[in-house]
Amino acid sequence: MYESAELPSALQPLLHDVVMCVAAPAFVASPRDGQLRGLRAEGFYGHDRRLLHTVCLLIDGREPEPIGVQPLGPDRVRFTSVHRYQGDPTDDPTLIVERVRVAGRGEFIQLRNVGTVTRSLRLELALATDLADIADVKRGRPAPTVACSASEDGGGLRWQAPAGLTEVRAAGEAEAPEVTDGPEGGTFAWPRIVLRPGEDWHTRVSVTGGAVPTPPGHPGAPRSAAAPWAAPRVAGDPRLVALVRQGLDDLGALRLADPERGTRTAGGAEDQFIAAGCPWYLTLFGRDSIWSARMMLPLGTDLARGTLWALARRQGTAHDVFREEAPGRILHELRPADAEHGHGLRLPSRYYGSVDATPLFVSLLVDAWHWGLPGDEVDALLPYAERAMEWVLETCAGDEDGFLRYYPRAGGLRHQSWKDSEDAVRDATGRRIEPPLALCEVQGYAYQAATGLAELLAARGRHDSAVRLRTWADALRKSFADAFWLSARHGPAPRYVAIAIGRGLEPVSGPASNMGQLLSTGILDADGCRDVAAWLASPELNSGWGLRSRSSALPGFNPLSYHNGSVWTHDTAIAIQGLSAAGRHEEAYALTTGLLDAASHFGYRMPELYGGDSRTPGAPAPLAYPAACRPQGWSAASGVALLGALLGLRPNATERVLHVTPMAQELSRAASLIRGVEGIRLAGRSITVRTGLPADGISVEGLPEGWKHSAGPSTP
Questions:
Q1: Of the four, 290, 484, 544, 652, which is 20 to 30 A from 704 by CA?
Q2: Which of the two residues, 618 and 702, has the higher pLDDT score?
Q3: Distance (Å, whole) CA 68 – CA 326
């Protein structure tokens, strides 16, 4: 029996060298040699439960020697190794071992004799598990190994505990293995495999399991293999093409479906959404899933529809302190069961502790309406958006300063926007600032939700409701301008936006990336957009690889801090979108090229975040953040977000106009980044947008009936 090493205690496992295969809600985390030894986050997983943590192959009592790892797609990978023999007349390997591992299924093992001598060998596969919850794995919490038993027919192994169960079987053309079970795990053994020169031997090992019985209607794998978005053809920079292609592959692997589907669309199509990220957040996350869907709107509205309905069905209906639920509030995250996350953090399976998901839900519906979501779908979802907006208005009305502020419960998330780590908010001196806080980008989200919903309601003839929302939004915009701007003693602009406002209108000083997410919300005027753009392009925030979450000139800056100096892929992409919408093409171009260069160093599978060190001749590649999720939903969708930003796409359903303002029309060197895209989806139609240098003009083909395009800018 293979002895697995003891798991390290109380430290989050590092992931930068882990090979991930994903087919949500399943994934496999492997070291680069393919041998699962029960260490760190290694293992086969399903529905937040580790099904196996040890799958170790031995030939004649020895581990084969690894020589290569090759991804075959987002859900599978091939590990290749060799087994060598003393006394061979040549140093060339003659026995090749290939293992193709597939998320949600198991692995295929093949031995190939490429030598000239017949080989007789013994193969063993050691198997074990702890059936640990993903939250325990994340916090580095050791769990005891679960005893296994032979299956009733003797052809497999079975692990069962209150936490769940796992079954492993071997099948194929090879003879059935000898099965050994025990308290520490089990073994499959093939005691005498004979391979003549040129022959091969193979077997399939299936891994199936179940977690704690999940609540009725819990999301699972989609029934359909078809993704709810179009497959575009992009002409332009090879880095951009590769980023979009890899991102769409990863998004396909991160898809989940809500089984509580309706029959609103033809055939009762299931409602699909994007899980937040692998391995820690492979589930429905309000904020993350919404942003992924917003970024993907240029490729169709089906993903937005599915995301909206999955969240609408779980919208808050009552006041619950433990869940932090309130009527109208949009879910933060959904898990199969309650979980302990360490450091006193205990979250329920259905948790609403997010201040931003609710206004973002409203804006996703408005954006989807502009991109052509069918009217009956818009009307069916509109009541949920109105209830969400009422939560925003009531929360602001109950705040002493009239802002959208979060007041977390004890034992819940301390910070409740996208920067949600324990030390997410620091001032210019590096001092940690505690809630309640009104974050700057959240006020932008609230403003955009109110103005967008007002436009939608006006289009439905509900002018009184629209006026009420516009009046409230105008007041918020004025209060924001009065409270959030801070004078800068140095830097590229005389002022910047505070990351947050504490009690008593006390601003949190120090430039941070949060202000970049304001640019496309409309809460800033033209002068404000200019000043924010200057900060985003400055060396303090632009690392050369993307946008730092905190200025490098401030105490407390750490390039490997989760939220105080690292670069987040989606944050950079959102800033680029905002800069493009505000007409700040020079600054948008600088961040875009840096992000594309970073993507080339990550094989175009962009991580959740990465190091914020400056790009210098001595730092030829960005540093990996060692515990980042990869793939991550909104990181994978960022390539499509760049398409929309580079082309300057902004549809307006009221006027039935597609505004197209390509970056290259204002900045000639941006012409090499993109020349056109086939497969943009607008109101159910596939359109083609081509662009180039200013002299080349803009071409838009295939617009829906009644739509036209405008080459001029539109107001964010």
A1: 290
A2: 702
A3: 52
Q: How far apart are CA 378 and CA 91, in angstroms?
A: 68
Contact yes or no for 687/703 (Cβ under 8 A) = yes
Read off the tokens for 619.
């730092």
**Mean of pLDDT over the chain:** 93
Instruction: Confirm if 522 and 446 have CB atoms less than 8 A apart.
Output: no
- What radius of gyration do the chain's Cα atoms show? 27
What predicted TM-score, i.e. pTM, was given to this entire model? 0.95
CA angle (648 as vertex; 642, 653 as ends), nearest 5: 115
Q: Where are the beta strands (DSSP E) in 285-353?
A: 333-334, 339-342, 345-347, 350-351
Among the listed residues 45, 40, 44, the one whose alpha carbon sits nearest the alpha carbon of residue 11: 40
What one-character DSSP code corresponds to residue 409? P
Q: How far apart are CA 523 and CA 478, in angstroms?
A: 9
How is residue 688 written in tokens? 């083609």
**Number of other residues whose CB lies within 10 A of the CB of residue 244:** 26
Q: Which amino acid is at 392?
A: V
Question: Rounded distance, CA 252 to CA 691, Å?
Answer: 28
Supply 189's token pair. Answer: 């053994």
**What are 453's two structure tokens?**
């919903």
Residue 113 confidence (pLDDT) above 50: yes
Question: Taking Cα atoms as reference points, which of 60, 379, 297, 88 lies closest to residue 189?
Answer: 60
End-to-end Cα spacing for the chain: 63
* Contact by Cβ (8 Å): 586, 663: no
pLDDT over 90 percentage in the chain = 84
Q: Could you say which DSSP state residue 624 is in?
A: B
pLDDT band at 3, cuts 50/70/90? low
How much is the pLDDT for 7?
A: 45
